[in-house]
């Protein structure tokens, strides 16, 4: 439940640097001083993902004060007059919004199928390629309707909100840094990663409830309320609510794999994002804006590098941690009396009756009974998800380039 993504459920922010040193996506960090410290917001428990180091970039305009333009944006917009400036601003906002919409809405059917395949230990078809996963999506849509592919989407947003809120509260009342300063040290990094781990652990019961909503078959479930995720998460903590079987794993057993997955996803995506952003901006620096350069190209150079870096970061983290995510989801779903769709046929339902004792036993059982490919069940959905995301980014880029050229 991305790439959110879940997952698809983080990039390095700097404090204390001037506004002119930062590109688009900069926003003032509340500090009480005039402009305060400026923090980059580059473009994840899965899927999450967010406002700080390695977190996904919000749509343009969400992190920038209304009417304020970053230095790159000012260079981009300086030569076009008020009309061109407003159009370029709208273009930046639209590009970011298209990326956000793709990650959290259009990609959700891929996340649903991906999670169902991961927890389906019965499955004979592992759906390692996008061709088989698209066929199953079509069959489920035909037999249950489109609602079956978008189930649990509201709960994923709730989990993201809980994660962000928890992180903010912990950082406010503890010395754990929410961002890393420009002159970071090992102690700051340790505290920062500890904050991320604690955030995922606190959000863990709500993530379990959201996971159940995304994999539970639409055939047998009642209409869930929008806050059922919160209610069931609290019930999981206090031991009340929906009855579970004796195979339900205690939350303490789930703590380590949940925190491990969340922190690793954060670290990998942060490193990849920084590397890609460095390469893209270095390439763009060789093409300094001149009088003959078009405002269209300047706009694309200003807005697209961070979106591409975020895309690459999420993709690499999801691919590298897919086996761990499979183990994590099976542990979370065990003992919850969840019934999923039959991912071999696209119709009928199957109960989940695993008996793993913990993370190590789950890994050994999958390796013994399903082979190494068992860790990658449903991987075709990841390919479909990120192919769709890249297609939307490219299409948006073409549309805005055409519009701006026509206006120019």
Give descriptors for this structure.
single chain; 408 residues; mainly alpha; two-stranded antiparallel ribbon; two-stranded antiparallel sheet; 12 helices; 58% helix; globular; disordered N terminus; transmembrane; mitochondrion; MCP_transmembrane; membrane
Helix content: 55-70%
Number of domains: 1
Q: In order across it, which strands form the biggest sheet?
A: 1-2
Task: Indicate the radius of gyration in whole angstroms.
Answer: 22 Å
Membrane topology: Multi-pass membrane protein
GO cellular component, one term: mitochondrial outer membrane
Organism: Zosterops borbonicus
Subcellular location: Mitochondrion outer membrane
What does this structure look like?
The structure is a single chain. The protein is mainly α. The protein has one domain (19-65, 82-407). 58% of the residues lie in helices and 3% in strands. It is built from 12 helices and 4 strands. The strands form 2 sheets. A two-stranded antiparallel ribbon has the order 1-2. A two-stranded antiparallel sheet has the order 3-4. Strand 1 and strand 2 form a beta hairpin. Helix 5 packs antiparallel against helix 6. The two termini are 43 Å apart.
């Amino acid at each position: 439940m991305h790439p959110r993504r879940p997952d698809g459920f983080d990039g390095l922010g700097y404090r204390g640097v001037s506004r002119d040193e930062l590109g688009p996506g900069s926003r003032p960090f509340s500090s009480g001083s005039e402009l305060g410290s400026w923090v980059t917001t580059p473009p994840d428990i899965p899927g999450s993902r967010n406002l700080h180091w390695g977190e996904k970039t919000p749509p343009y305009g969400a992190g920038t004060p209304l009417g304020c333009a970053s230095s790159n944006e000012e260079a981009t917009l300086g030569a076009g007059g008020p009309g061109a400036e407003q159009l370029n601003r709208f273009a930046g906002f639209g590009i970011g919004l298209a990326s956000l919409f793709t990650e959290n809405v259009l990609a959700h059917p891929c996340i649903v199928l991906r999670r169902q395949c991961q927890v389906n230990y019965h499955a004979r078809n592992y759906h390692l390629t996008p061709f088989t996963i698209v066929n199953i999506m079509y069959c489920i849509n035909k037999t249950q309707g489109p609602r079956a592919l978008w189930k649990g989407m509201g709960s994923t947003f709730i989990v993201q909100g809980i994660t962000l809120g928890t992180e903010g509260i912990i950082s406010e009342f503890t010395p754990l840094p929410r961002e890393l300063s420009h002159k970071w040290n090992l102690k700051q990094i340790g505290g920062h990663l500890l904050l991320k781990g604690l955030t995922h652990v606190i959000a863990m019961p709500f993530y379990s409830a959201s996971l159940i909503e995304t994999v539970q078959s639409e055939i047998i479930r009642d209409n869930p309320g929008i806050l059922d995720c919160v209610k069931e998460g609290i019930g999981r903590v206090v031991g009340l609510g929906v009855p579970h079987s004796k195979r339900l794993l205690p939350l303490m057993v789930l703590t380590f794999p949940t925190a491990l997955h969340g922190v690793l996803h954060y670290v990998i995506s942060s490193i990849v994002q920084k590397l890609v952003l460095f390469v893209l901006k270095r390439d763009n620096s060789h093409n300094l804006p001149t009088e003959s350069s078009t405002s269209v190209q300047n706009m694309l150079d200003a807005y697209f590098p961070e979106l591409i870096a975020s895309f690459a970061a999420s993709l690499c983290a999801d691919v590298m941690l897919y086996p761990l995510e499979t183990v994590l989801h099976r542990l979370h779903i065990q003992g919850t009396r969840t019934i999923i769709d039959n991912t071999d046929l696209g119709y009928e339902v199957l109960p989940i009756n695993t008996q793993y004792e913990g993370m190590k036993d789950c890994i050994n059982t999958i390796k013994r009974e399903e082979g190494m490919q068992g860790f990658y069940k449903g991987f075709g959905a990841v390919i479909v998800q990120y192919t769709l995301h890249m297609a939307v980014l490219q299409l948006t880029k073409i549309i805005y380039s055409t519009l701006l050229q026509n206006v120019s």
